[in-house]
Amino acid sequence: MSLDACAQLVDRGDPDRFLAVMAAPLWARELLFPLYAFNLEIARAPWVAQEPLVAEMRLQWWRDMVAAAESGAAKAHEVAGPLHGLIRDAGLPVTVLDRLIAARRWDCWHEPFADAAALEAYVEDTGAGLMWLAARALGAPDGAEAAVRAFGWASGLANLLRAVPELQARGRQPLPAGTDPGALARQGLARLAEARKACRTLPKAAAPALLAGWQAEPLLRIAARDPAAVPEGRLLLSEFSRRGRLMWQAFSSRW
Description:
The chain has about 260 residues and is mostly helical. It has two domains: about 110 residues, no CATH class; about 150 residues, no CATH class. Helix content is about 65%, strand content about 0%. The longest helix is centred in the middle third of the chain and has 25 residues.
């Protein structure tokens, strides 16, 4: 699959990440688009089949595909092929990729998260894991993992809270019973504050990986101030605010 085709896939299915990648340098786009195309494929796998077991089979295929990358057995697949090249060339940790796929099993079923810890683990393996993979692809050192993951966790939580109305409409229960969205948002803001200082020391080349979280702070602040905005579908930013914030972060590298 060509880079242009990967970009088109992300543009159609994940427009926010598409904008974030387009705000990055050209060389970084070549690394981020295959990774985000892969993430889109596994994120939508649970929704393309009515039967949960069929959806799980799709996810297992991806787990097998990632495992095969360690042996160098590239797959003739429009996304798997470029991803294998990225795993090989950037040394992406296969265990993180596998946990990212495995976490999506929750999306195959209709049961709620067992408790707050299960929800936090899901966000860790999806949002935090993906941002760390992106940073690693751009050359982030091992010592930056904790800070990047904290930033990615806050971003993943913001995305999950924003998706609550749609998930509920599809028969899912995205938050454990009795969960206070405002308290969750404050937890995300705390992680963001924890990550901010450390992320400022991230090598300049790896900084574009953080652009995917450009909306996290304002979204979490809205949810913390007005928890009802989450179930009511009012957790959103104006188009001017969205694009303005992305441009500011892309040019200033301030998080």
